């Protein structure tokens, strides 16, 4: 089964470090003017998920949400969460560590689109 969101091994290592420091985590991809392609990482429960946010799945054991408007743009792609050197948003947990999460994407094949799992319900991970 094809997953809508994946994570690179490098980004997963950063998530594990953050989890050890902050406890359970969550991600949100809003696409707002300041966020761009950077998903935000928060302690789970510190960010209020809106009724139009969509739970895409999990990365490194953490729920990953995306705003509905962003999902419309990226629904035909698999999101791949990566980490790169640099300073990201001050609100995301990795910011003080000199790295930032970055969302890359690749277009699903026709066969993959046919095999996509239904989106999970948000209540499953809150």
How do the strands and helices of this protein lay out in sequence?
Elements: E1 5-7, H1 9-22, E2 25-29, E3 40-43, E4 53-59, E5 62-67, H2 68-74, E6 77-85, E7 99-107, H3 110-114
Parallel strand pairs: 1-6, 2-5
Antiparallel strand pairs: 2-3, 4-5, 6-7
Pfam families: DUF779
Protein name: DUF779 domain-containing protein
Organism: Enterovirga rhinocerotis
Q: What does this protein structure show overall?
A:
The chain has 126 residues and is an alpha/beta fold. The chain has a single domain, classed as Hypothetical Protein Aq_1857, Chain: A. 21% of the residues lie in helices and 34% in strands. The chain has helices at 9-22, 68-74, 110-114; strands at residues 5-7, 25-29, 40-43, 53-59, 62-67, 77-85, 99-107. A four-stranded mixed sheet has the order 3-2-5-4. It is globular and about 40 Å long. It holds the Pfam family DUF779. This is DUF779 domain-containing protein. InterPro entries: DUF779. It comes from Enterovirga rhinocerotis.
């Amino acid at each position: 089964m094809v997953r809508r969101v994946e994570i690179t091994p490098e980004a997963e290592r950063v998530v594990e470090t953050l989890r050890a420091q902050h406890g359970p985590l969550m991600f949100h991809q809003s696409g707002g003017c300041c966020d761009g392609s950077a998903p935000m990482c928060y302690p789970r429960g510190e960010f209020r998920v809106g009724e139009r946010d969509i739970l895409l799945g999990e990365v490194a054991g953490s729920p990953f949400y995306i705003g509905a408007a962003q999902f419309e743009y990226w629904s035909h792609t698999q999101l791949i969460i990566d980490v790169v050197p640099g300073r990201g948003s001050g609100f995301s947990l990795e910011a003080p560590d000199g790295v930032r999460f970055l969302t890359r994407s690749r277009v699903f094949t026709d066969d993959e689109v046919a095999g996509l799992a239904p989106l999970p319900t948000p209540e499953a991970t809150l």
